[in-house]
Specification:
single chain, alpha/beta, Spore Coat Polysaccharide Biosynthesis Protein SpsA, Chain A, 2 domains, 12 helices, globular
């Protein structure tokens, strides 16, 4: 019998964390799943640890690959997946034991193509931060779900808090270049869904530590030119995609791109980051050219106008 859910996890040099992540999935109350682990060229024992679990539980399948980017590894998992639904977990995170059951029931009961839960962020110092925790249930059509993702009101682009109908990936895959695959892909999945069900029950735990791939996205003093280049490219592509698919969101899509720019300009100035001069000058020029439209947009917030007044 084919599994209902395929859980995909990429691992790379995370022997300290990967066992916890694997066990959190194997202890799920929803049991009809396969767990596809992609060892993306680890130099430590991460792949060996994954193989040890595969011996104990036949739901675990391990693929060993030469180290490539995250997106290509996830695509390898998708090529192997047999489930009707796709879930993701990162190798340094963990999930509550009813994580899959909660997302599956939410998707089935609401006839949704995507279901979303809340999460927590655990830091090195022991602090736990709530991320999109609330008691309400929201149902969004494709256009609204994209807008909500961009606004990050009830969820963001991170894939691990979401359950996707597998057929969404028939034409949509992760990029095989770059480091930040979620921002390049998730909005397209929402755009191609008929319905998204969102409930802020916290079922997933992100771990934040110095070796996180997303460290520069959350610790702004680590901002670097490579990240900025990739984000600016992706957000320009996102603007073009959203504007083409949802003409009602053209102004919103353009605003979101400028909103990111002014936010990065402010952070570069505040933290005195000197490694992003080229990107800084590019963003300043873009903001100057579109200043009046951005300043007067219904989406622009007061603090963004203040930043424009003070920085541009």
């Amino acid at each position: 019998m084919s599994p209902i859910i395929s859980v995909i996890m990429l691992t790379y040099n995370r022997e300290k964390f990967v066992g916890r992540a694997i066990e959190s999935i194997l202890k799920q109350t929803f049991t009809n799943f396969e767990f596809i682990i992609i060892d993306n060229g680890s130099a430590d024992k991460s792949g060996i640890i994954a193989e040890e679990y595969a011996v104990k539980d036949n739901r675990v399948k391990v693929l060993h690959r030469e180290g490539e980017n995250i997106g290509s590894g996830r695509n390898a998992g998708l090529d192997t997946a047999k489930g009707e639904y796709i879930a993701f977990i990162d190798d340094d995170d963990w999930a509550e034991n009813n994580f899959l059951e909660f997302l599956f029931n939410l998707a089935v009961n609401k006839k949704a193509d995507i279901s979303v839960c809340g999460s927590y962020r655990q830091h090195d110092n022991g602090e736990t931060e709530e991320k999109y925790i609330f008691d309400d249930l929201f149902l969004y059509d494709a256009e609204t779900s994209v807008k909500e993702m961009v606004l990050r009101t009830h969820y963001n682009s991170a894939t691990p808090t979401k359950l996707f109908k597998r057929n969404l990936f028939n034409k949509i895959r992760f990029p095989v270049q770059g480091k930040y695959d979620d921002i390049s892909t998730t909005y397209k999945l929402f755009a191609n869904s008929k319905l998204t069900a969102v409930h802020g029950k916290g079922k997933y735990y992100f771990t934040r530590h110095n070796s996180n791939n997303s460290g520069a996205a959350t610790k702004h003093e680590q901002l670097n030119s490579q990240q900025l280049d990739e984000y600016l490219t992706v957000f320009k592509e996102r603007t073009e995609y959203i504007s083409r698919v949802f003409p009602n969101l053209i102004e919103f899509a353009k605003w979101s791109e400028w909103s990111y720019m002014i936010s990065m300009v402010e952070k570069i100035k505040r933290f005195n980051i000197t490694s992003c001069d080229a990107q800084f000058n590019f963003m300043i020029n873009e903001l100057k050219q579109n200043r009046n439209i951005f300043y007067n947009s219904v989406y622009t917030r007061d603090f963004e106008r203040e930043w424009l007044d003070n920085l541009v």
